[in-house]
Amino acid sequence: MPIYQAPTKDMNFVLHDLLKISEADIPGYDELDSDTTQAILEEAAKLCENVLAPLNKVGDEEGCHLENGVVRTPAGFKDAFDQVREGGWTSLDCDPEYGGQGLPYLIATAVGEMFSSANMAFNMYQGLTHGAYNAIHAHASDELKAKYLPKMVTCEWGGTMNLTEPHCGTDLGLIRTKAVPQDDGTYKITGNKIWISAGEHDMCENIIHLVLAKLPDAPEGVKGISLFIVPKFMVNDDGSLGERNAATCGGLEKKMGIHGNATCVMNYDGATGYLVGEPHKGMRAMFTMMNEARLGVGLQGYAQGAVAYQNALAFAKDRVQGRDVTGVKNPDGPADPIIVHPDVRRNLMDQKSFIEGARAFTFWGAQMLDRAHRNNDKDADGLVSLLTPVIKGFLTDKGFETTVLAQQTLGGSGFTQEWGLEQFVRDARITMIYEGTNGIQSLDLVGRKLGQDGGKHVMAFFDMVKSFCKEQGDVEGMAEFVEPLKAASKDLQAAGMYFMQHGMKNPNNALSGSYDFMHLFGHVCLGMMWAKMARASLDALAADASDKEFYETKLATGRYYMARQLPMTATHLARIQTGADTVMALDAASF
Amino acid sequence: MPIYQAPTKDMNFVLHDLLKISEADIPGYDELDSDTTQAILEEAAKLCENVLAPLNKVGDEEGCHLENGVVRTPAGFKDAFDQVREGGWTSLDCDPEYGGQGLPYLIATAVGEMFSSANMAFNMYQGLTHGAYNAIHAHASDELKAKYLPKMVTCEWGGTMNLTEPHCGTDLGLIRTKAVPQDDGTYKITGNKIWISAGEHDMCENIIHLVLAKLPDAPEGVKGISLFIVPKFMVNDDGSLGERNAATCGGLEKKMGIHGNATCVMNYDGATGYLVGEPHKGMRAMFTMMNEARLGVGLQGYAQGAVAYQNALAFAKDRVQGRDVTGVKNPDGPADPIIVHPDVRRNLMDQKSFIEGARAFTFWGAQMLDRAHRNNDKDADGLVSLLTPVIKGFLTDKGFETTVLAQQTLGGSGFTQEWGLEQFVRDARITMIYEGTNGIQSLDLVGRKLGQDGGKHVMAFFDMVKSFCKEQGDVEGMAEFVEPLKAASKDLQAAGMYFMQHGMKNPNNALSGSYDFMHLFGHVCLGMMWAKMARASLDALAADASDKEFYETKLATGRYYMARQLPMTATHLARIQTGADTVMALDAASF
């Protein structure tokens, strides 16, 4: 049975040493002293370690079952969901007006990492509800909000997002689901949606579907899509549940992973729906909450890596095999623990240095989102929009890769179901696909975000890196972090320059390099995070911190990232600079 | 249902345009004109496409079942195995003295790729038998050979390899299985083995287990291991089957993939065994056939990539979504096929350029093995020994990565079981682990093979690359292949130099870079293969080949590899040159 221990100590390091949140000038952050965050994280840790993590394998093995239109979740899920609800974990960052606790999104992010590591398939039920909550909160009328949000905040009612149809996923302009206006102001929704996570299940008394559909007079393409609330059960004016709506689950998808989450075919047969926001503006409504949703998927990616790493590490310390070539380390045993071997170290350090960098990057992004929303800071909003595809694409690619590395640490045991590593690999795999495939993320980055507001945000990013490097370059102990970061950042700028110079002539010169650019950008971001964490660690050591070993370990891990991961930027740049010629050379028929 | 089309055309290109096998001075090769190889490949293709590939999903979904000590294989496997036997596919490269066809190993390799692509789990039953055949053929007495080999050549009897025990896999010096000599010259074998592929099943009338065990007077460690034949059913002198031996399957492993293959716990309870070769020389016996076994696993790795790619390509041509930014390609449809998009191309070209390079490299390696065995060529033997860990480690890592890329091409469909891509990912994953994890391959490469015979073989490799570059550098059209190859080869030499200069002082400086070195080496090998394939294609075009498009596509694919894959060598070198410091900095307790 795999283990999970919530990394509360490292989270507190990120929150307080790195981000210094209680000093940040963001409404609500002043209450986040380290005692408060520690108390929250420890409570969440208990639930994750004792209740959710043990159900992860159960969910995988048992899966979900559709019986007479009802989806039965794996044994134990419903009880656990009740505990999550009772603990108030569903409402952390929700609006107090609707019963939420009004905590910063950053706190929900830290807790979210634990929930995702412990049981990603389970946590999706809550995650999807939160996504639907956000969309309704941002775009629906006060009346709809008052009717639906309070019970979604508590997760008494679940929520879903219905975008994909069999013939269209990425290209939503092609959707066929129809919404026909009725005399009473409601709409009749008819169509088929696929891959609807948590579309039907037995853990909530109602499910509020958000459905993209087209009005009869809708313009062609994405500019003709509207967003509707379609409840599973109609909600009476007094809040009680009424009739069953014509929104039903037509089947469950068999998938590689996240078996504990019900991936549904949803059929809408003239179901009653309510328009959210303006007609034809459904895509905009979706997009405004996409930053948070995509950040949440990036988090899932590295969170799977994080739990996989813990299990790989435990194995590497326990399993004895072979001897340290530089001298026996375990003379009383038949062999040395495999953690003595350099290639096992290389593997573990790749995992560790990525995960800790990813955590810092994600928390930093969550803080930017808080700044954007709570301070109404347009620059923070622009920066986090720019980096959202990097967080989603890079962290899920590398998060998946990390689960594969962790699996490899266990050798043959990693391939067996018994040890659980292979489940982390299978579960992590979806994060590279949903909420926009990583290829789409890279197009969003290069095709939209780079040039947004005249390139203002990418320039701000470079300025931020540059001023950090300038400020820190001569500080004792920082050169070994600042110099590689400078080099990597230079590669990123050169790649951007290549796109500017060659993308005008032929956009394919930019698009052919978009994926490499996303990874290049990701490495620079993690390099920056590691340099900042080094700075924070040096400060703590200079201030004679009680836990010297923690900070020295942090510095050593950062040095590894700089030495062994950051050199990837050169290869990404080299690939980008070859342009579209070799990528597009073949006719489709010649493949 | 996934598709599979055997790549006979590309195989013939490798055999005849690239390797020019019928002109090669290797006994048996003179008979391999293109009509002969075409006939063999086409027959194999029929079986693979029509019989084995359709059973791949069945095997995955149904798996193997242990009932009263007997393993039931998935429905259809036994019939298919009969067809494989009847077609003579099990005996291609076996010794005619024992009923084999005596064909070169190269031919068995080409056919093996198809079998592995079509149904890897199924083909392992035959593959393991062939491995056991090889060990017995190379090391057992004439009497044992006469008794066991003829029926193993036909696969009427299966074969297995029993190395791993619960407490030891990589470090076989720790094995506990005992062999006690009996008065009649036999041995009583007692112990538990795990992860025994094809250890028990219902497709053969007998199973011949090869078991590593220790004699009572055995020296400690790997120098005290002996190899035994332990038949499932005793074999009488007239060849008929006698009593059941005390070799039983105690359980089946639940695994991430290759469900169609039975991975058995094997219990030997005083089972009767026969010594193969000399006492205490069991590891040597294993090692002599390891080159072929590991080459076979490298082949499995890229073969899974190959079939996954075919399915990704078909999807990319068929699925319409979005429009080509440089101009609509499918004006009559609602959108363009996704193959028009540069990032989809990038993905497909990564797959295609790897697979074709890997095929060439593996076939070339098989030819080297034939040269080593059939010409008794020590240099060829040394070279293939050097490159075996590269073939195994690099091709399985990249093969797995290719299945993941192919899965990504399908977006959400790639994650569903229906489309079958996720099975290729799960099946390919084992190739990075078994037959020595890829970490172990990299240690074998850097710790043993580089310095073997005074570094003679690695020098021969560099000479081969160098003289090719010198000879071809000025030939028209070759510079774009030769120049990147030169640069990559220089990186490889620099890495080797780093090991020499820093590995003496501290072996961890070399071992910390072993994995990167294996990949660096792999890229140089594939770069060399692409340069050679470019040369062959230019020749064919100059000779006015009828199929111009094929050769031009080959050149374009090679250019892609040079531009987009080979730049990885710089990053691998940079990582290697940082040495052991950052890798080994942490105490085990500080992780």
Oligomer status: homodimer
Q: How many E strands of chain A?
A: 11
User: What is the fold named in CATH at topology level of the largest domain in chain A?
Assistant: Butyryl-CoA Dehydrogenase, subunit A, domain 3
Give the total of domains of chain A: 4
CATH level 1 class label of the largest domain in chain A: Mainly Alpha
**Biggest β-sheet of chain A: count, sense, barrel?**
7 strands, mixed
Based on Cα principal axes, name the global outline of chain A: globular
Helix-strand sequence of chain A: HHHEEHHHEEEEEEEEEHHHHHHHHHHHHH
- Estimate the strand proportion of chain A: 5-15%
The CATH superfamily of the largest domain in chain A is identified as Butyryl-CoA Dehydrogenase, subunit A, domain 3
Low-confidence stretches of chain A: none
The mean pLDDT of chain A is: 97
Radius of gyration of chain A equals 24 Å
Number of helices of chain A: 19
Helix content of chain A: 40-55%
Level-2 CATH architecture of the largest domain in chain A: Up-down Bundle
Q: In angstroms, what separates the terminal alpha carbons of chain A?
A: 45 Å
Q: Hey, which two chains have the biggest interface?
A: A-B, 91 and 91 residues
Give me the secondary-structure category of chain A. Answer: alpha+beta
Pfam families (chains A, B): Acyl-CoA_dh_1 (PF00441), Acyl-CoA_dh_C (PF12806), Acyl-CoA_dh_M (PF02770), Acyl-CoA_dh_N (PF02771)
GO molecular function (chains A, B): flavin adenine dinucleotide binding; oxidoreductase activity, acting on the CH-CH group of donors
Family (chains A, B): Belongs to the acyl-CoA dehydrogenase family.
Domain Acetyl-CoA dehydrogenase-like C-terminal (chains A, B): 461-587
